[in-house]
Amino acid sequence: MSSNPVTEPNSIHVLLVEDDPSHVELIRRSFTEVRRKVRVSATQSLQAAKEFLRTERPDILFVDHLLPDGDGIELLTDLSSVSTPMVLMSSYGNEHVAVEAIKAGALDYLVKSEESLRAVPVMLERVLREWAHVQQTAKLEAELRQAQKMDAIGTLASGVAHDFNNLLTAIHGYAEMALQEEPGVRSREPIERIQYVVNQAAGLTRSLLMFSRRVKTEKVKVDLEKLVRETARLLKRLFPASVEMRISIQVEGGAWVEGDRNQLQQVIMNLMINARDSMAHGGVLELSLRTQTQPERFVILQVKDSGCGMDEATKARVFEPFFTTKTREQGTGLGLSVVLGIVRDHGGKIDLETCTNQGTCFTVSWPWVEQPSNSANPAAGKSRPGHRHERVLIAEDNPAVRDLVQQCLQKIGMEVHSVADGEALLERMQRGPLMELVILDLDLPKRSGESCLRFLRESGRQVPVILMSGALDQLQEWDGDSRVRCLSKPFAMAQLQEAVETILGPSKPVRGPVSGTDKDPPESTVVRAAGA
Questions:
Q1: Helix, strand, or coil (residue 131)
Q2: What's residue 479's pLDDT?
Q3: Of 278, 496, 518, 514, the residue nearest 413 (C-alpha)
Q4: In 10 A of CB 367, how many CB atoms?
């Protein structure tokens, strides 16, 4: 392939498709008087030009209209799949031919004369400038189409996220309740696997939303050592016996980074699962975590496998969205592109070393941060949720989630009312008893949760509100409201109770079990916990 005139402006390859030798010679001579280095090739027929183009790609073509074996415009069809500009030449000024040539894709039209053929170098410079503009416009249009595609994916993901995350919230919540009943070791393992699968499913939805919209994340200090050990413990059970997992932790002063815990865990999971999938016939996965002190302090995660590795072509595209070497059943092509996005969003960098049949090693580096002052004893100040007595109204159209939230709040003694749509919420707020807390899903039938919240605020009601949604971008608008707390579905019941504690203030400590919490709630929409 010849050099690109934009990247190497002093080198250009011209192909002349011209059956008149005198015209070819005149154009050749015209290029001897210019500073630009020009290499001129010539053919005398359409067929010869087509054969030439199968092996070489000139930077520009000057093609005669009438050739011994056909019309020069026909050559534009062969150029449709490549990026090469063309100028059509004719011995007769014919406006109809000029229009047809431009419509077919020619960039310019030249009426041959001794004077115009001597001026071909000037035309060449102008055409190449125009071609560079055409290429840039095409690139911008392609980027726009990609952005529109990602926006469509975001719209679809936001629509699916609500119903999908409702199901995940219920599954995760009931699994969490089952674990709180202190089951035996054998029964804990399948429940923990359920929670792991729920987190993976939620991660897929978050991945789609992350690509289609710039989702704001809430960053806190995260103990990466604890997160790596926890993730490895969960995933080890899902690895075949043929894959040996080796873990090495060498950290000094802790391995704390600032970030979103769920997203950081998603990086670890995606890299480990990718490594597992590359070792279909078994191998060794080495998971290591270490700290670097010079020249700057970093926490470095490394995931290395002895699998099939990648060739250079795959390596060059591995972080592209939707690119995957897996089958449709095995992957979406979002995993590593999501990893790259998360790592960059957290101020880190990722390096890749790989070679066909010699394994792959991903190295991720994040800036190290000081250990938080209260992290020495994580259990300190973390007590069982206290007994509450406030009256709360739940607005949620999914009965499984509504029942789950209701049970969770009953256990800490709250008086629970529930409705299934936005209109019922506003009617209950206007005519029912005074509510001290509203737990509100943003996507409600009849009247949206957002509309309900705006109505409450505009009417002067400053009741505290906990917003729930499976679409993260919908929650961000309310981050600045001190009377609003946001819960992204799926959430753990501990997160719900923490949100209640945060927005309503500390509760009274529990001295014993709350009576009546194990009874089935009455059929009424109002549920009063015993002793409330």
A1: helix
A2: 64
A3: 514
A4: 14
Omega before 295 within 30 of 0, i.e. cis = yes
Give dist(CA 198, CA 484) in Å, integer.
Answer: 26
Tokens of 280: 């279909």
- Give bridge partners of residue 221 from the DSSP assignment: 258
Helix (H) or strand (E) holding 485: strand 484-488
Report the pLDDT value the prediction gives residue 62, as an integer from 0 to 100: 92
> Which pLDDT belongs to residue 361?
92
Burial of 412 (0-12, 13-18, 19+ CB in 10 A): buried
Q: Residue 273: is it exposed, middle or buried by C-beta count within 10 angstroms (0-12/13-18/19+)?
A: middle
Identity at 432, one-letter amino acid code: G
Contacts of 289 (CB under 8 A, 6+ apart): 224, 225, 228, 248, 249, 250, 251, 255, 299, 300, 301, 302
Residue bearing tokens 């899902």? 238
26 neighbors 114 (Cβ within 8 angstroms): yes
Give the residue ranges of the chain where pLDDT is below 70.
Answer: 1-10, 78-82, 150, 153-162, 181-187, 200, 203-218, 321-335, 374-386, 471-481, 507-532
CA distance 495 to 516: 23
How many CB atoms lie under 10 A from the CB of residue 185?
6
- Spatial neighbors of 361 by CB under 8 A, at least 6 apart, are 302, 303, 304, 305, 352, 353, 354
Q: Report how far apart, in Å, the C-alpha atoms of 500 and of each of 392, 412, 465, 507, 526 are.
A: 10, 10, 9, 9, 19
105: left (phi over 0), alpha (psi -120 to 50) or beta: left
Measured CA to CA, the distance from residue 467 to residue 464 in angstroms comes to 10
- Report angle CA 102, 107, 112 to the nearest 5 degrees: 85
In angstroms, how far is CA 378 from the centroid of its own chain?
32
Q: State how far the Cα of 44 lies from the Cα of 387, in Å rounded to an integer.
A: 94
Task: Tell me what pLDDT residue 314 has.
Answer: 82
Segment (H or E) for 97: helix 95-104
- pLDDT of 381 reads 40
**Quick count: other Cβ atoms within 10 Å of Cβ 381?**
7
